[in-house]
């Protein structure tokens, strides 16, 4: 296993890696909509949190030697599934066919009072 670390994504808020490379796969930890330059959560809404979280994922994947085009599985955690359409539209702008497999889960709370968290698994 190899640890992936980049300054272009937020520092983890707990004892975990931004991503781990195992064999020919990259397992990215969940990303919140944290702006890595300020270390603060984007507070302009769920859609903007999702955009920033996906931008953070892109940075982690690039540091690992992968890309968004190589994502095979996405998990999205949301505190308000009523905002699913907003997040889905952002997702459709980032990913193209064949779309990665995906799971979306409604949760009660997320760290730092975020409204969305996204993690991915990608190929190298």
Q: Helix segment count?
A: 2
Order of helices and strands: EEEEEHEHEE
Q: Describe the largest sheet.
A: 6 strands, mixed
* Computed structural class: alpha+beta
In CATH, the topology is named: 60s Ribosomal Protein L30, Chain: A
pLDDT averaged over residues: 96
Q: Into which percentage range does the β-strand content fall?
A: 25-35%
The strand order across the widest sheet is 1-2-3-8-6-7
Q: What fraction, in percent, of the residue positions are helical?
A: 10-25%
Number of domains: 1
Number of strands: 8
Amino-to-carboxy terminus distance: 13 Å
Gyration radius, in Å: 13 Å
CATH architecture: 2-Layer Sandwich
Explain briefly what this protein structure is.
By secondary structure, the chain is an alpha+beta fold. Helices cover 24% and strands 32% of the residues.
List keywords for this structure.
24% helix; 124 residues; single chain; 32% strand; 2 helices; 60s Ribosomal Protein L30, Chain: A; six-stranded mixed β-sheet; alpha+beta
Structural topology:
Blueprint: E1 2-4, E2 19-22, E3 25-31, E4 34-35, E5 40-41, H1 46-64, E6 71-78, H2 84-94, E7 101-106, E8 116-123
Parallel strand pairs: 6-7
Antiparallel strand pairs: 1-2, 2-3, 3-8, 4-5, 6-8
